[in-house]
Specification:
- The protein is α+β, with helices and mostly antiparallel strands.
- The protein has one domain.
- It is about 55% helix and about 10% strand.
- The protein has seven helices and seven strands, in the order E-E-E-E-H-E-E-H-H-H-H-E-H-H.
- The strands form three sheets. Strands 6-5-7 form a three-stranded antiparallel β-sheet.
- A hairpin with a 6-residue loop joins strand 1 and strand 2.
- Helix 1 packs antiparallel against helix 6 and helix 2 packs antiparallel against helix 3.
- The longest helix is centred in the middle third of the chain and has 30 residues.
Length: about 200
């Protein structure tokens, strides 16, 4: 998590050592580093809105692909089948395993979707010079939702299952699997681009 929003908007936590500190005013080509570990907290002078907005829109496209197209394609004894993310969650509900299904639904669908929606909600108005309603609450919620978005853990589980099934069947990664992998990277990059203090400087 890059610059974690706390009770005071000018406080940030280093994403390497968690030291709380106040950043100096952002200046072009001057990087702000953590006083303890030297990690870069602010790249200095870069537009704090354009990159997160672009990443948010990219993430939304990837999210749609991940939930519409096949996740895996199976081939066994001449028979073929496809697995979809949402269909797998529905099967968990039908087993029945409602608690597990609810956890998977929240961590792999709802939390990432909320993260993406908040990024666009915050940064799209700012791109046009407007401050979105409930700006502070939205910034806080972005930081709080991050630990609940666990797409990387889901992908790891899919990979382990695919490796085990590969001994018995032909398995091909579908478009959703590739888009999920890229989505994990895009959301991680977006998290590093959220700089609350620079946003406060922007909105005044």
């Amino acid at each position: 998590m890059s610059a974690q929003l706390l009770h005071h908007h000018d406080l940030v936590a280093c994403h390497e050592c968690d030291l709380l500190q106040r950043l100096p005013p952002s200046r072009r080509n001057v990087r702000a580093r953590c006083r303890r570990c030297g990690c870069v907290l602010d790249h200095g002078g870069r537009d704090p809105v354009a990159a997160p907005l672009a990443l948010g829109i990219t993430a939304l496209i990837l999210f749609v692909i991940s939930n519409v197209f096949p996740l895996l394609e199976f081939g066994l004894s001449g028979q073929h089948d496809t697995a979809y993310l949402l269909a797998g969650i529905r099967q968990l509900y039908a087993q029945p395993a409602p608690l597990l299904a609810s956890v998977v639904l929240f961590t792999t669908v709802l939390a990432p979707l909320l993260h993406i929606a908040l990024l666009i909600y915050i940064y799209l108005p700012l791109q046009f010079g407007r401050r979105p309603p409930a700006f502070v609450a939205a910034l806080r919620l972005v930081q709080r939702i991050l630990p609940w978005s666990m797409l990387e853990i889901f992908l790891l589980g899919v990979l382990v299952a695919a490796v085990k099934l590969a001994e018995q069947a032909t398995i091909v990664a579908g478009p959703a699997a590739w888009s999920l992998g890229v989505l994990v990277i895009v959301l991680a990059a977006a998290a590093t681009q959220v700089h609350p203090q620079r946003l406060w400087d922007r909105v005044g």
